[in-house]
Amino acid sequence: MMQFEPSAEGRVSAHFELVEVGLLRLATSQLVELLEAADAHAPGPTADPALKRLLPDAYRGDPEAAAEFRRFTAGDLLDRKVLNAKVVLATLGEEPLDPISDEPDEALLHDSPDDAPLAIVLDPPDVQSWLRTLTDLRLTLAERLDIGPDGRPRRDDDEAPFLRDVYEWFGMVQESLVYAIDV
């Protein structure tokens, strides 16, 4: 399992297996697409429910005040979230997941014995982008899994076990990163 380690220069580093890099790239790219397609001022009833979790109402009991607050803050918040996610993608590199497959699932599973883990080194600003993006990824997955205030997923279909595993793995990555900067 990947583990972030602090360095003397204030950086943190970890080695990710290529399947982990592929999973992070895919999920983060999908997050960027979701955020870039969002209407910052009116998430409305047809908006992806994950956006409501990523951009919750500031005033739950007052729709007018919530809309006014969103009008002044949501655009900048979405821009920052996209920027953070793009920092994560930049630190993971730009190469394709798998040159022999256009299918993301197959690309994630492609792993050969010659594939060495990828070293990731993060400066303090990159660490903050990673932490924020991991939070956004987990919030999005929490919505997909229908995780309520009790912390239990209510979704129970064929995709749920995979999504739960990814949700928990993102949590472990985030926890490792928090411990590495808390030294």
Automatic annotation (TrEMBL):
InterPro entries from the UniProt entry: AosR
Pfam family, one: DUF2017
Protein name per UniProt: DUF2017 domain-containing protein
Organism listed in the record: Cryobacterium fucosi
